[in-house]
Amino acid sequence: MERGVYQIAGASAGRSHVDVFLACGVALIPPGDGGPWSEERYAYDFAIAGFVRRFAEEMQIGDVLLLRTDRSAVRAVGIVASDYLYLDQFDDVNGLDFQHARRVRWFCLPSEYTFATPVFGASPTRCSRVQNADARDFALRFVESPPTHWQTAPLPGLPLEEPRLEAIPVDLRDLVAQVGDLVPLYLAADSFGAQPNEHELVAHLVVPFLYALGWRPEQIAVEWRHIDAALFRELPRTPDHCHLVIEAKRLGAGVEGALEQAKGYVRKLGVPRDIVVTDGQRYRMYDARADFAPIAYANLARLKQPASDLFARMRRP
Hints:
Blueprint: E1 5-9, E2 11-12, E3 15-16, H1 18-24, E4 26-29, H2 39-42, H3 46-58, E5 64-68, E6 73-80, E7 85-86, E8 100-114, E9 127-129, H4 133-143, H5 173-187, H6 189-192, H7 198-212, E10 220-224, E11 227-232, E12 242-248, H8 259-269, E13 275-278, E14 282-287, E15 293-299, H9 307-314
Parallel strand pairs: 1-5, 12-13
Antiparallel strand pairs: 1-9, 2-3, 4-8, 5-6, 6-8, 7-8, 10-11, 11-12, 13-14, 14-15
């Protein structure tokens, strides 16, 4: 019997998950917070049930997976190496609950391969069987051609699940509760309407968070030199006194996409300053002195132990 060929999305809403898939030897799809796949559990949403069912039940060990980055581009080819799994350590992958999982042996292509046409369709789902003849031929010829050692190589170890934050700091409890109330409301398009823009998120979520961390109003500049929020150790508000640059994105838009814009603002300041990117719920900090490598993270709706480090780094000195 011929192997099945499937495609799986490696990016969504401006967020790339390719590095996580390749490093951990997994294929992941949301929404995972509903619990492990079952017909009964996901019957409420037929759109979701379709691609989760394909991923959990139809896909077989030994099938070929194409890790796509858009409608016509592939970054890696993989061989499915496990039955369906539900892995809670992937409950927050760049802000998405990705617990539906398969182990996969991936081969990362030297460069992205782009087909001449949108072989995955005009609006491909997160996971589906590949019907296009060119894409199927590419996948099957690839896994049947040398080198093939990667198809039997040991799978990388899975990350451990990060423990939940046992005790929310007293001065942050009200703010965390407010995020828990507002974020689901903002995401309920039918009852709320259009999502709030970055300025509203800064006003209602980011600035209150900064107050809770001890920053005074005069130390918080909003839209200073086009920066969404800047923190100052002392006055006057000059680049030398700037302590931290904060760039905001719309809720769910993928905070990582704000980094390049924020780096441009830091370059214009002329002094190295750490950056925090946020959507009001998720906060990721980057170290200016380490080529803006990520150094701390917190999701206020999913507080885990490492959040304590971000809180400590963002508190007023």
